[in-house]
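Job type: complex structure
Entries:
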Amino acid sequence: MPNYRVYGFIVASDLPLPVLPRAEAGEPDVTIAAGPVPGTEGLRTQFRNWEAEPDRFIATFHETGRFLVSGGNRITYHRFDHADDSQVVSILLGTCMAALLMQRRILPLHSCSVRTDQGAVLVMGVSGAGKSTTLGGLMALGLPMMADDVTGIVFGESGQPMAIPAFPATRLWQDSLEKLGHGTAGLPRVRTDLAKFYRAVDGFHPEAEPIRAIVYLKATNASEPRFHPIELAQRTECVSRFVHRKNFLDGMHLRRWGFDSAVAIVRKVPLFELARPSGWVEPVDLAKTILAGIAASEDMVRATA
Amino acid sequence: MTPQAEYEPGRSIVWLASYPKSGSTWLRALLTACLCPEEPVDLNQLVGTAVVFERAQLDEHAAIDSAHHSLDELLAYQSDYHRAFAHDQQGPVFIKTHSAFRSTPDGIDLFPRSASAGAIVVVRNPLDIVGSYAHHEGKSADAIIARMADSEARQDAWDDRISKALPQRIADWSGNIASWLDQSAMPVCLVRYEDMLADTKAALIRVLEFSGIDLGDDTVQRAVEACSFARLSAAEAQGGFAEKPSQTRSFFRAGAGGQGIRELTALQASRIHADHCAVMERLGYAA
């Protein structure tokens, strides 16, 4: 099985993962392989297709398959008939990866991220807020990407929050790709039946970086973008809201870890909100607003220090 | 016998189901005024918001990326989420939807009985919907007539991008309404927009009785007065209405009935009749 690198660890997979960079041969940290996975009928929690327990996450995805993530080092999948590779890979790199990160005590934050000369800048927001498009704008300014959709976070020896890079590919809708001046010819699709594509990026920063700032991006009815610091009292809640798949934390007995991580992040990292118009805004303009706003805030802090 | 919503453990949702521009926002304002009589009606705080159709909520519940699933694939996840949402609520919980009543091939309902106490189905003469919908969307009457005949018509659905709201299949006007009237998962209270115009208080009382809400006559009367077209239009002008698609076009446009036959050409009206005569007759709209 070939090895791949993602979030700082080595993954061996019996299913091709075309968007992940290949890694050197050797003992992997995580193995992804087809195998038997028990069903999720009769789960303790009703009305749900998944269950999270300490070091064990199990889920059934309609028309795709059953998945088991265990011990922070193994993902087993049972593919349903007619499910194609893209459907299975989408789950592996999405929900399963989030469960795996938590089992490995890496906080998954629903955010894109880039490296600046003063550390990583993360942009978090709900699906549809414009994270990927904003990422395109930041990269157009020459900033190397660290993550497209989920950034891993760990803490350095001094408690400094560190951004862990994901993989060197963005996922963009055809509309956004074309507006950024890119075509879709030859690009692998995220799903065979969707006009959303993986686009490999040249500008990728593969090492962990201290986090310089986190920006909460939201779409509003406002006619102009508005960038401002988030009130202190709201910062922990804001970060907690964007822990990816935060519903897993209770079952994994990691709720305290998740909360403590969010508190530790806001103690060290400034948090801002960018309220953007819900219509199309040039990605580079959004990116410039973010960077200028962060820089202005840092200037103010230095001036009053 | 007047139908009644059926409240049981887990069955707490009363769906406010309608094809777009049929008057459901007005009904929501009336319900809000009834349930919160001490407060002025705030168009941005109406009961019945489509909370279960927020993409982020479904994604978190089902641990999926809904953007990577087709509308049909999402149905089973949404059905589970509706049951989970309804499970811990005390009915009635009003939730608006423009979706048709849909099911998977193996019988999973998008609006499951086990989550649903009932549905208030608001309908309006399709001849009158055309002008209102065209204004709302900034499109021509012909484009709207074609959309109203499109059984695959969707809302918040694009092939190349996503919105914060989940996509919904609204279907064609006839299919949308028939799907709700013909389903057997939950009782239905049918409300005609024209009947609301003619006697708002009587229509509102019928909705409240269906929903199991017992209010004094004075409260209902004050709600009717607070939600006149003039007052809602003024509220929109003053405070805006976040749910409308354009901030430059008014949401509350005319508040009348019967203007469709005057606004449409003979050809346009004949297209509506040809596309929808069966359901129009069923609802008492002259064919």
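Summary: The first helix of chain A runs from residue 85 to 103. Helices of chain A lie at 85-103, 131-140, 174-179, 232-241, 248-251, 255-268, 283-304.
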